[in-house]
Amino acid sequence: MHIAEITLDINGEARSVTVRNADTLLYVIRDKLGLTGAKPGCLNGDCGACTIDVDGNPMKACLMLAVEAEGATITTVEGLKYTSLQAQFVDKFAFQCGYCTPGFIMNAQALINKNPHATDMVITEWLESNICRCTGYKEIEEAVKTALAVARTALQEQLK
Amino acid sequence: MTIGKSIYRKEALEKVTGTAKYTDDYTSPSMLHAKLVVSTHAHAIIKAIDTSEALKAPGVRAIVTGQPDFPLTGEEIHDRPPIAYGKVRHHGEAVAIVVADTPHMAKKAAELVKVDYEPLPVVNSPTDAISASAPLVHEQLAKYEKIQHVYPEPNTNIADRVKIRKGHIEQGWQESEVTVEARFSFGPSDHAAMETRCATAEIRPDGHILISSSSQAPYMIKKLMSEYFKLDAGKIIVTTPLVGGGYGGKVPTQLEIIAYLASKAVGGRPVKVFNEREEDMITSPVHIGLEATVKLGCRRDGVLKAAKLVYLFDSGAYSDKGATITRAAAASCTGPYHIDNVWCDSLCVYTNHPYATAYRGFSHSEVLFAFERTMDMLAEKLGMDPLELREKNAILPGHTTPTQADLNASNVGNLPECIRKLKELMKWDEGRRMEVNGRKVIAKGIACIWKTSTIDTKASSGVILMYNPDGSLNLMSGLVEIGTGSKTVLAQILADKMKMDISQIYVRMEVDTQTMPEHWKTVASRGTYMAGRAVLQAADDLIRQLKDIASRILVCSPDELEVGFGKVYVRDDPTIYSKIPDIAYGHKYPNGNAIGGQIMAKGNYMFRHMTHLDRDTGAGKPGPEWTVGAQGIELEFDTRDFTYKLLKAYAVIDIGKVLNYKAALGQVIGAMSMGLGFAGRESFIFDEKGKVLNPQLRTYVTPRYGEHPDYIVEFVETPHIDAPYGARGIGEHGLLGMPAALANALSTAAGLHLNQLPLVPELIWKAKTGGTER
Question: Looking at the partner chain, which of B13, B22, B245 has a beta carbon nearest the beta carbon of A133?
């Protein structure tokens, strides 16, 4: 068993942690750093409940080793500062049990950050990697599309 | 003030910030981790288990295998060893528990446990199971302990048989001018809650047993653990934090027993058992399968005269809730129609499939799939519009159910109104099958629904209210927040009753069986009804106590007082009042004398006049009310490759009274989505040896974002006068009609009878071409 001490740049903090080479990033952020927002829904990259942001891209934390994440800028749902997307999830009732919610929010937030002009097809391509079992996805669609519109308006304000 | 409004969930902020905690999110350095070794066979004798290599693996603290002195478990029939002993009865069954310092150490060691199996012939379907030559899944069925109202048939694979005998079926056939008979089937599938099941257990030196579990029934864990292991009930403390989806799958007590046995093996240290997805899908219980035969008879004018139904439920290796589901299916064995002559045999059958438990709708979507498909076939034979046939036979106040329960204007909703609304919404009169071009057609299908609950006739719900010094209230209910938002609805009810701001009500989300009053189980769409009634009773108690104290300060009779807006005031002169914060913790007079103390109030509720079903006829009253509704699907079907796209999904449900509009809408739409998944593609795939070939979310495909149709939901409000504000159960109902409506729409689109699930293009292709043509 190979053990390494690594430092992760996570939610704006440098966190040193001892990991096995085989530890997934999900295991380390949940069980070693106590950031339990990312959820272990399948540990196989199928459900998206563990999605976090790595260097601006959504990443399924169960598919990445912790040692691979050294040097990257990581944001978990705990690192979001109540974005308009989070507010829209509340307003549109875009969750029920809440278990898939952090993953959906992190995935959609990355989309909003990168591409506020995303078309319906692009939105679907991004969000079909996450499973929600409680809602009919319609509520999530409304939340994400409203947050995208808010982001576009903000962008236009900046350009003025 | 708050009733009907889309009040945000009390736990909303927690859930969108990732701070909401679920069972697996709690851990401690002292906690050990268990990994299950599971059966690779569906039916086999366990000849030997060699744990010697595994015990030598790093970090391993104990390995537990099945023992003859472990109790048999099960809610109705005690047929299930907590860990397989002697033989395995389904693929994925737990064979050993490996306890180690970390999850990966446990997992590595589990791979070193060697199990020597001798394969047995497999029972791979309900039809197999009831054939005379079928191998027995349970040889000792006659010897199992059981509750009074379940009737296993020894030396067969029949765990229970429920009979409905209403009217005279032979007379029904004589009065029938048109009959139709059809067979239906679908295999077991899964709940696939996003949170896999997880339980922790710790045995304290003083004998207290601390269990935490992602459960819909923490109080049942306490009760059953006490029974199974002869433990003092007061020493068992079960906590349940937020639960990441239940849908019935988290009703049974399973991992909690395993965690307890594991903790016992390591001297009481805390042990966590966490299901990985594969275990959650086949080791823990699943959604039941069904084989059904439906025969209906009616007069030429479409009036139903007879229904003969045989339901064979695939309960899998153990009966768990299978027997209860079988009973519920019998109680609602027809669709929501008035039929004088009903004959039904509903059987709970053992097979070598993963065992079944409750699933959202509790047999109703399953039975309605078969029944409502047959209704369409009957309409076709009559040359009658299928919606008209349903309207003509719709269940009404004054009619009786298959169990001969009397319906009145309160206990059943308004089905004709639901049908009328659906007809309008779907533009039904514009046609059911429209050619788009040479290749594609648009088709519509409908189904009517009803459901009552069939829970224990002695099931209660309690609520405790406690004031804070500022006059705000703490609300404690044993209801589990599984995602339905019921605990927010309880706060709405309390805010309305106390005429106070809902932000001043604090709802304890976590359940703790030691300090919070019992809510029987968070199931059957009964949370708001039962706990809501308890809230209303507790609020009355609170008001009585407030008036008592205030009357002594305001020097008048309590009868002169009203409570609201943070005050207790004189009815005809509100300028005379006491502020609640000044009396909620007692009151101090100017001279220093004090009266009262912290005001606490309690309430509880139990259904009245529920009965068991008669063994020979099924007569009885299983539930307090019947929610009804009408649903539909509009889809675009490709006649060349048999694929289809869902365009619109409709539901009109008589909800009694909307308490929180968006929450109610979410319940209905979410259930419809789940129903479309079940109907359209979700099913376990078994090989000929009974092994599940797709126990993961990559191969067991749930609906995903972007595939969702437009959901159109409307409510009818016919109050159920026993329930808070007249509200009816709504948590499951959106699901109930989806399989039938989808099958009806696709049958219309493809011009054939699709009587199996899941409705994948391959099934339609096979039905259309016999599976040969390209």
Answer: B245
